[in-house]
Amino acid sequence: MKQEQFLSVVDRDEAERRFRAALEPLGPLGVEEVALAGALGRVLAEDIASPVDVPGFDRSNMDGFAVRAEDTYGASEQAPRRLRCLPEPVVMGVLPVGEVTEGTAMAIPTGGVVPRGADAVVMVEHTRLDGDHVLVEKPVTPGRAITWAGTDIAQGEVVLRAFDVLSSRETGVLAAMGVDRVGVVRRPRVAILSTGDEIIRPGTPPLPGRIYDSNQVILADAVREAGGEPVPCGITPDAPEAVRAALLDALAVADLVLLSGGTSKGPGDLNVQVLAEVLAPPGILAHGVALKPGKPLCLAASGRKGVVVLPGFPTSAIFTFHEFVAPVLRILAGRARPARLHGGEADGARTWARLPVSLGSDGGRTEYVLVRLTEDAEGAAIAYPIGKGSGSVTTWSHADGYFVIPREVERVEAGERVEILPVAGVRPRRVDLVIIGSHCVGLDVVLARLAQRGVSSKLIAVGSEGGLAAVRRGECDAAGVHLYDARTDSYNTPFLEGGLVLVPGYGRLQGVVFRAGDARFEGREAAEAVRAAAQTPGVVMINRNRGSGTRALVELLLEGTRPAGYAVEASSHHAIGAAVAQGRADFGVAIDIVARERGLGFLPVREERFDLVVAASRVERPGVRALIDELASEEVRAALRGRGLLA
Amino acid sequence: MKQEQFLSVVDRDEAERRFRAALEPLGPLGVEEVALAGALGRVLAEDIASPVDVPGFDRSNMDGFAVRAEDTYGASEQAPRRLRCLPEPVVMGVLPVGEVTEGTAMAIPTGGVVPRGADAVVMVEHTRLDGDHVLVEKPVTPGRAITWAGTDIAQGEVVLRAFDVLSSRETGVLAAMGVDRVGVVRRPRVAILSTGDEIIRPGTPPLPGRIYDSNQVILADAVREAGGEPVPCGITPDAPEAVRAALLDALAVADLVLLSGGTSKGPGDLNVQVLAEVLAPPGILAHGVALKPGKPLCLAASGRKGVVVLPGFPTSAIFTFHEFVAPVLRILAGRARPARLHGGEADGARTWARLPVSLGSDGGRTEYVLVRLTEDAEGAAIAYPIGKGSGSVTTWSHADGYFVIPREVERVEAGERVEILPVAGVRPRRVDLVIIGSHCVGLDVVLARLAQRGVSSKLIAVGSEGGLAAVRRGECDAAGVHLYDARTDSYNTPFLEGGLVLVPGYGRLQGVVFRAGDARFEGREAAEAVRAAAQTPGVVMINRNRGSGTRALVELLLEGTRPAGYAVEASSHHAIGAAVAQGRADFGVAIDIVARERGLGFLPVREERFDLVVAASRVERPGVRALIDELASEEVRAALRGRGLLA
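Structure tokens for the assembled complex are given below, as produced in the milestone run.
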């Protein structure tokens, strides 16, 4: 019999429409009163009209003398006006006792109450004392150096509006009006349950086959960022009673319930079944949505309380959270406009970027592609897709934004412009230095050092060849490359042409890694060991991705043979090390550091050069300058040697 | 004898140089370990290399069957490859017991561990079950639907760097690596003391001559925003022993000490004297800085601990905080780069704007002018200076940014371009509707209603004439105006020309306000009462600012006379009400609402029209459309009538 379809998939917009409709009327939650000292970042629940005038009295802005302006007319340094000083000066915080009358003046400090009769203040610098008289050397106009009561804020004036978010700018205004408690929108409580027998809590030892629960943390913090209050509910195993009990607890305390994991058709899929039993109408609204990542999403509601089962894979979970849940949360928290005047979120400025590569899509569903951004020589944005997939947690954390491939589009060509949307409201940061190309642990050392110096950087790992192409197209400041040229038997320099400059990096030892003690490799010469292994049944290799400098070396060693595992391409030195250490493969090619860090055996093949290639036109940019300086510094070279590199 | 000069004033940059030099070496404070669940927003203290591979095993990305890829080659729907199903499927979170050998397949769920021997997963949709066999209908390549161990994050890979700020993007990555405690930079503790006999705590009843302590709240929250931890130290009276005791306490607990108030030469000035006695060397570094606002600033240090006496006036205090203290705080908190590669702060993108008015400066000191921004028809920024001065707390809270008038410049002309710097890192928000012109309480009603509908707005109060000029220059969406034309005896319509459209507003009753019971006004006819008052010695009026619609009405009533107080110009209806209520003036002209809210007497003069004027080219903008709709809605008109307006 044919396996039944995954689930009956709903269009993205239709899924959202059903979810929103179930939650209507959707608006900010109720009011709670908080102390002003704890109100930073909260959302005002109501308009605030000032209960008082600010300032509450006519206030002097200067140290000087309160006078009647007309008594100073005609005054000059040569012909000062002579006024009698009243015996009692104005004292801070106290209503003046005397009154300024014709021909008199009263000393007054900055912030003092202007006495009755006075309509201006002469600053002390324009006066001289002469016994009990003051000589005024400059005339003043009425109102001079006085802030009238209520000028800053008038009693009854609406100073702040409902749904203003309180920053230090607003809390100061509230304090100035004497307000010390304020009504704010209650934060939506969001229960977060992780489900799955394979999930373990961070801080516990790793276990084979298990993964750490990253969704609980990332969702809790994303809820905080959207203005909500997370209620972490821990990890529930894949057992109906356990999920049922946890769900009932969550529904009892929260305004919104999130589960993650268990949404596919696999053995662990029971969250949705439990929802179907437990939820009050309308219950499940959509299970399976035509989008990527995020297809297994389940949207539901129990009464007007939203319940969402997010996919277990981190990037899918957080992406669908931001697409479907965060907008609802922001409305509940009073942080989003119920209606959208423009196409997007408030302040969600959009940018366009050019794709440097072609991308296929399955079609028939909305596909979201997370990207890292860089700029070409003209400052136009370039969007590099991040290829690690929805199971990756770093895809999300590295993304500068994403673009949408609509369901009817099956391919986006290199050079096309796409509209970049912000990820979780995070705006792409402009960095001082963009490096595209091969990654190396030595580069980590240099970039860490630059970060300490205050130079920010972004590294987009696409391999040596991709990096060289990017730096040629002017898409980055530098490319990390280790490309071998057999004709000249040299590294990197033969590939420079058309205005590219080589910044000398360091050497690193490439070789064959294997599990220590494996007699098929231990103590042998690398080329000979590989030659023998390639002909030994049962020996499995692991290959590197095409376009990487190491791949070229692998091909040299294999001399045209294709041992088992040849087709499996890992994308980093670390991944080679992991595959060999865990027994998935028996050998691979990587740098010696990886062998050392994982306790693997190592047969040296050759020292290769890892250099940086820079466009001549960018050499004088501050970020590039700093990179060149640091690479040449003894401090960095010592640190590189400390990591086993040849510097 | 000549009054001694205020204080010996230091150049702005020199003052900053001395302060920074005293704190050197200046860098992030030490490390403290916090739970990951409380790490959001904190600053990483060190590079984080992953302790594990993520995923920790070769993981299936699909529900399906783990196979050897070569066993599927040539498979099709018509000619499926038949593989024997191994009896034990892969179970989530458990290492598989069996091994996939030639001609076999093992059922596997999404997230399951790929069993030994398999190098690909066939998705369930491409299979059929046939007893204890599975029919594969589509070939797969090696690696298909598998994420190899360490692909996302490899053990030893540097994933996050020191001084990364932890958002949900980063905390999720830490959790995925099993990290549940993390070393972050300790938050600098900043003691905040308000000093002054005139200062009272918000939440207590207002007292004559006293002002609420807004600086403590605004500084505490600004410290939080800069990554510090405020230590509020309350209000200290102007007494040397009290200030000394508070200062010693503060120095004992804090990394940085802020005092506000008491920095001028007035009677309350003793903070600086106490500093001179109490601080360890180097002590006072600068007292009096050539800048406006902020001249009375005092920068000091006790050892390497910064001590700053900020001016008491709110805008001066917060501005000097952001200029001199916040950058230091961000360095201590690990949030700023020690060196600046570019001219400005890390992400402080700068913008240029055109000044619509000319501005004089005193020269000889750096002057900062806070502005509100709008845009002309071409989208170019226009900067309206906020004129309320450094004593104002709302100046700061309304500002979209500021520009600098260098010490050698004495005047900036209308039309000049100025470089706008962000206020406290706050980027100007784009709003849906910009209104420039006269302010009215009725406008508050409409804008509050629009805010509820999700339409954001900005109101720049410059009076009717200024608003009309702004809307003509295309600098705003609408202008609030109430301008009387004597020739036609009508409001507003005579001033429309050149593509301006009138949006009907409402009527409001202008009249003479006076203290209830004042026999000189009570029960009389307005024009006659003003005529009499103008000739009665001892009666004081309060005027409105030139360019306001009400000023024109005042001039009509005065018939050319200039009673006492004529030269004193208040800038709002509320300010007129306050002046009369507090006895500073005996009468003025304002709308009846103000009289009602303050319990003042009121003699009606005329019903005037408050309308909105819109450029014809902007009528279809969503914000303008919403304004027009709301003004016409019965709901808003009822609310306007509820505030006593004629709608």
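Chain A has a mean pLDDT of 89. The CA atoms of residues 589 and 643 of chain A lie 18 Å apart. Further analysis is deferred to the final report.
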